[in-house]
Amino acid sequence: MGESMTARSRVAVVTGSAHGIGTAIVDGLRADGVIVHGIDKDSVDVTDTEAIASFMASLGPVDILVNNAGGVVGQSHRPIEEISDGDWSAILDANLTSTFKCVRAVVPQMKQRGWGRIVNISSGAGRNASLTGIQAYASAKAGQIGFTRQMAHELGPFGITVNCVVPGFVLSNPATRQQWDGYGETGQAALVEGIALRRLGEPEDIANGVRFFASDAASYVTGQVLPVNGGRTLF
Fold first, then answer.
1. Which site among 110, 125, 155, 160 is 20 to 30 Å from 64 CA-CA?
2. Which CATH code of 3.20.20.140, 3.10.50.30, 3.30.310.50, 3.40.50.720 fits the domain covering 11-169+203-227?
């Protein structure tokens, strides 16, 4: 049996919390009564093993981890032959390796308590292809999905669930707004037309998926990938 949480409020860490989806996740979990520590690249470097370990240790027990940090690290599409090793590694580190390092840091205490919730934020690029053609981003986001399933298999016996939310197109940060503007009116109309609900997602839509996975209602749900995309992909 896992530790009773009635004696104290649950504690969460949300990475990439500075704006957009991350901020909405922080707000949503706080509305559910969770004590939330939001971190971004200016407060904790989630690619730095020692920085992560020190930060997590300073908090005490962490019950919920949401790996939202990532992005394209300022890159745009170029042909594969023009991609340097550094370009490739920068995106994998920001998205996939950071997820691995944060999970590794919180799991020992979760195992001791027999309870934990880990939610990884992937992307439609990880299930289909990057709309902006960024090879490393599509690969890193697909890797997060595979990592989610593997960790669910490994950590389930300890009462820890691991799930993944896959957002559709959300105007959540300067990069996505620049991408949206680049489509022009025709491209924007085509994108929305391809969404069953005929609207773009809001950061709160993604946060609601996270709130479900972090809740007691999802206690028997693990290793799952939840697309929150308004029906852009119907499978």
1. 125
2. 3.40.50.720
